[in-house]
Amino acid sequence: NMKWLNLVSGLALFFAPFVFRYTSAPAALWSSLVMGGMTALLGLRELYKPLALTGLVTLLAPFIMHFSILEAAMWACIAVGSLVLVTNNYAAYLVDEAGAAGQQQHV
């Protein structure tokens, strides 16, 4: 279920600074906390398009926020961001296709 994938991914990113010990780097810490929290909360609501955007921002965060030198933080964001971006883009596509098919049947 997509809800659980997003919840687990978000929580993994949220706790990554504490597990991989990059809490002393503010940009990496706050990017992981905010984007991980957003991913978990949006995942519970099954909002696929905002989740795909969150995944893209998470994927790019190490480069935009200049913490790509911290390998653990960079790879945590790249892994979670890529997973969230790809899976939720696909889920949004399936939802749109299902909605379009339903509208065609009612015409």
Describe what is shown at a glance:
Helices cover about 85% and strands about 0% of the residues. The protein is mostly helical.
Would you write up a description of this structure?
The protein is mainly α and 107 residues long. It has 4 helices and no strands.
List the helices and strands and how they pair.
Blueprint: H1 2-19, H2 26-45, H3 48-64, H4 71-106
Helix pairs in contact: 1-2, 1-4, 2-3, 2-4, 3-4
Task: Give start-end ranges of low-pLDDT stretches.
Answer: none
Let me know the largest β-sheet: none
Percent of residues in beta strands: under 5%
Number of strands: 0
- What is the 3D form? elongated
Question: What keyword list fits this structure?
Answer:
mainly alpha; elongated; 4 helices; single chain; 107 residues
